[in-house]
Amino acid sequence: MSPALFLCQSCNEPLKLLQQQGAPLEVQRHANPPTKMPVAGESQVRTSSRPYSNCGKMPQGSVCCTFTLLGETSSMRTLDTIQNTTLETFEILSDQKVVDHPLCVDCTDNLLMQLDDQLTRVASENQSYRSFLEKELLVSEEEKEALHAELCAELSSLEQEEARLTQELEDLDGHHARVAAELRAVQAESKELYQQNKQHRADYSALKMEQLELMDQLSSVENQLEYALSQLCHLRETNIFNATFTILDEGPLGVINNFRMGCLPGVRVGWTEINAAWGQTVLLLFSLSKIAGLQFQRYQLVPFGDHSYLKSLTGDEVLPLFSDGSHSVFLNNKFDCAMKAFLDCLQQFVKEIEKDERCPCLPYSIHVKEGVMEDAWDSGECCSIRTHLNTEEEWSRALKFMLTDLKLILAWASLRYC
Questions:
Q1: Which of 24, 176, 236, 381 could form a cystine bridge with 64, CB 3.0-4.6 A?
Q2: With contact defined as beta carbons under 8 Å apart, do 102 and 10 qualify?
Q3: What is the mean pLDDT of the chain?
Q4: How far, rounded to the nearest angstrom, does the alpha carbon of residue 130 sit from its chain's CA centroid?
């Protein structure tokens, strides 16, 4: 038969069984205060101080204990144990018996220490009560009355102090309420100031960003201004006529802005290039007359690229300074009249600039009526600018003489006006 398992009612640890020499096993027990509720273990064991009723005889290997066993333990379910259990249960339920619960050694020691501490405190309190009682017995009635009066006065003073402290407490409560209200107001103001500060920081960041953008724009504008000033200074130092018009008189033909003017049997030049050269020549004389403030008589120059022409101021006649080669070289055609009209305008400009002492002396003289250019410095040769009854060599030489005079006039105008 397996022994019953008992648990400590404090730590729930199983109780150790002690085997005495020459005696059956007994459960380790210590005295403990009575409790009112039975505690079930793993095998649902209840304890009691009533022994099993078989005349003190137990089978070999059984446990000798004074506890009442409750629950289903098949090895211990005999008629005697059932009767004993029923009787013990009845006595416990009818308060005829005090249940003694088992405890382990450590829990029993702790319980004893706690009881000793309680006993010590009770003894100390008892001694204090006894001393107070003895003192009271030794005090006379008069001293009692004096002490009573003193205590009453002290009580009155304490009551006044209590009233004062109560009033102070009420004042402090009122002050606390005012401070709490002020705190809430200050917190609300602080929250509002925080929002304002947050908004100010956002506005500051936006303004700072705008400032940086404006500084970048200002820096860019300053750089552009500096570049524009440098370009202006460069342009002021640049001779506009020399930069715009380039005349070359070396070689058999005169050249203006890379356009050849004239035609030779060995050097064939298309009329498109000749017309463009005449357009550049008209533009040069027109620009010189504008800067000199000269108004031409009889004709008006109209620069129009390779289709430039002269317009008569006395009528509606238009003289084209361009040709496609279809004009007759044997007749006094409009192209020849236009070239003679151009020499007329050039002669008027030469007379105007001769008023200046610094005017250069031109190597080729202009005879407007005959329409010829005369080499006054060297051979005195005269070359007609017309194509009528003229050769290509003479016509090209006359055009070259005219461009040479314009080259010297351009140099003088660059020093005079630029």
A1: 24
A2: no
A3: 80
A4: 84
